[in-house]
Amino acid sequence: MEALQIIVAIFILALASSLTFASDPSPLQDFCVAINDPKGSGLHIRKNTSNIFGSTVTPVNVAQMPGLHTLGISMVRIDYAPNGGLNPPHTHPRASEILVVLEGTLHVGFITSNPDNRLIFKVLYPGDVFVFPVGLIHFQYNIGNTYAVAFAGLSSENPGVITIANAVFGSNPSINADILAKAFNLDRKMFYIGKTAAVTFAGLSSQNAGVITIANSVFGSNRPINPDYTKYRSPYLEALQIIVAIFILALASSLTFASDPSPLQDFFVAINDPKGSVFVNGKFCKDAKLAKADEFYFSGLHIRKNTSNIFGSTVTPVNVAQMPGLHTLGISMVRIDYAPNGGLNPPHTHPRASEILVVLEGTLHYNIGNTYAVAFAGLSSENPGGITIANAVFGSNPSINADILAKAFNLDRKMVKNLQSEF
Ligand SMILES: *[C@@H]1O[C@H](CO)[C@@H](O)[C@H](O)[C@H]1NC(C)=O
């Protein structure tokens, strides 16, 4: 009985932890600049893609930009050679990735974990956005006859990369060829063709199945897994495994709070319909098996937005409201347009996100150039929130008592009233 109580307690704890576990990380202070030589400009430069894959990734993570430390965000530029430049199948063990195409035409996709190994893919054109959930194997392939360029935000200061082929066939020291022959169902001799070597990487990424068996994901996407895999499991053993996993999860959740969030399954596509769905982190979620590529996709970020407004700037968000597949992934993106000669994205905060911004056109302090300016930014939350200071303070509804603001800002009461009438 006591054992049962403990199990129940653990279970409740685990449930409670799963309710809060998917939040964005807290750095516990404003920031923490990792000490190192600061660098970090030059993402406008096309990189040399003359290499075996025809692609080059230029990262801006904590190694290049120490100020990113503890902020849960980073960025990359990816260049793809014409006619087949490939960012080969890889995973980021610690980050989801939101990617926007600036030039060219990319065929992109990711593969869900076992047992489905479903390939979710899309062809992207300039301005299109796609998200790759944390830990899943994904790739981008240039199907156009021009260079392609993409920028991506990643929900970790240090996302990590595991390039599947390199890890499996290029480990140091090599994995025994018999192991790989069996794992990939290949003739052992094949491993001696060309330069080979390797690793089995059975990425056990969470308690919730979350197993990505590389050979299955890469070669068997969409196909049912070998039935042997699931045979001979005693229900008793399985229950025990689940309990142990829950316990570890409950422990881990308090220990790892400052890490990037874990969605506890491949992804959760947010929906508004409560029927037949689970409720996670404030949203109803679709059955993952019914998820469609379009739920990880958004288009139109290539279009310059109208900036004829009081501030001379327009923010176009791609967060969970626009892209339901972002739910629980701790990442989103915006395009910001600035009018020439003074376009301003006014002082504001994001209560739930750090932001990493790259300028594509123009010169920003506010826009101090005489041309339009354009920036893209990644944000470390699916729903970063925005608090525009002037609007919040002087434009609240109902208004803050003018005496309070007069005192807070050391202003004349009449001035406060004037300001309040502006917002
Ligand atoms: C690109 O890299 C290749 C291989 O390293 C080199 O031969 C080539 O000259 C480089 N091209 C440019 C434009 O730098």
Automatic annotation (TrEMBL):
Classification via Pfam families: Cupin_1 (PF00190)
Signal peptide: 1-22
SMART domains: Cupin_1 (SM00835)
Keyword Zinc-finger: no
InterPro entries: Cupin_1 (IPR006045), Germin (IPR001929), Germin_Mn-BS (IPR019780), RmlC-like_jellyroll (IPR014710), RmlC_Cupin_sf (IPR011051)
Alphabetic keyword roster: Apoplast, Disulfide bond, Glycoprotein, Manganese, Membrane, Metal-binding, Secreted, Signal, Transmembrane, Transmembrane helix
Superkingdom, natural source: Eukaryota
Compartments where located: Secreted, Extracellular space, Apoplast
Domain Cupin type-1: 41-192, 299-417
Transmembrane segments: 239-258
Family the entry assigns: Belongs to the germin family.
Protein name in the entry: Cupin type-1 domain-containing protein
Lineage: Eukaryota, Viridiplantae, Streptophyta, Embryophyta, Tracheophyta
